[in-house]
Amino acid sequence: MNGFLELTDESLMMIDGGAWSWKEFGKSIGTGAVSGAIAGAAGGSVTLPVVGTVSGVVGGGILGALGGAASYALFGWW
């Protein structure tokens, strides 16, 4: 006895988490960029590494897009 159980196709589909898609990934980036730009509009200028000093709208959009990409990459398969 090896302690392993045989899984059915239905069980594998539940584990697989096949809901991850590039379309939803892009939508998550876009949503993050828009919400970040709206939030950044309330602030002044922001200094970002590599980019330099930008307005709050641009900085918020960049950081929001990165946040949207990271959150979908981590949790999009659920």
Walk me through this protein's architecture:
By secondary structure, the protein is mainly alpha-helical. It has one domain. It has helices at residues 9-16, 22-41, 56-75; strands at 46-48, 52-54. It has a two-stranded antiparallel sheet. The longest helix is centred in the middle third of the chain and has 20 residues, at 22-41.
SSE order and pairing:
Blueprint: H1 9-16, H2 22-41, E1 46-48, E2 52-54, H3 56-75
Antiparallel strand pairs: 1-2
Distance between the termini: 33 Å
- For the biggest β-sheet, the strand order reads 1-2
- Rg over CA atoms, rounded to whole Å, is 19 Å
Helix content: 55-70%
Number of domains: 1
Largest sheet: 2 strands, antiparallel
Q: Could you report the average pLDDT, rounded to the nearest whole number?
A: 86
Class by SSE composition:
mainly alpha
Short description:
With 78 residues, this protein is mostly helical. It contains three helices and two strands; from the N terminus they run H-H-E-E-H. Helix 2 packs antiparallel against helix 3.
Features:
78 residues, mainly alpha, two-stranded antiparallel sheet, 62% helix, elongated
